[in-house]
Amino acid sequence: MQYLPLTEAFFPAVVLLANQIHGDNYLTVSELQQMWQSGIKNNINASFIAFDNTTVVGFRISYAAGQWLQDKWCSVSLWPVSSTKMAYFKSVGVKPEYRGEGVAKNLLLHSICALQQQGAEAGLAHIWRESPGNAAQLYFAKAGAKLLYVHPDRWRHLSETMGYICPCCGNLCRCTAAEMVLPFAKIDNSLAVSE
Length: 195
Description:
Blueprint: E1 2-5, H1 11-22, H2 29-38, E2 40-41, E3 44-45, E4 48-52, E5 55-63, E6 86-94, H3 103-118, E7 122-128, H4 135-142, E8 146-151, H5 156-162, E9 177-183
Organism: Rheinheimera baltica
Pfam families: Acetyltransf_1
InterPro entries: Acyl_CoA_acyltransferase (IPR016181), GNAT_dom (IPR000182)
């Protein structure tokens, strides 16, 4: 398994995988282009893919601190660092047959390393609580993230405005997001491996 910075050559594969995992109309190439650019700061790319032989089997899209917009689902007063030092973990996905093998963990560690090099001190995420067995929240908590707030109907606006089809709810997403923050001070990036 290789962990590589996300580049435009991998955009079609990442969009395909993201829509298979998160639902139809979750991501387009043009949206991914904007997201990718939001993760590059000081010529350091904070978004990564997991690549097995000839296939993208996972991705992590992350935004650099100061390069993303806080919205009504951000509890800024609860953050342990200033907004200028807060990165954002936008999206992650791993093919089902590769789950449980540390792919998501390694993608996260690679992104954290890049975000720290950019100057970030913590990362925020809105975790999908309806993931099977709430695995997404459990995984992020195990990485050291703390729950700040629970937001009902976090992605409903995507269904209403962009035609997003949720894999759990269908045409009108009612899923809940756990707003979680991961301080970087105690993260050991040496655990990230690249085979």
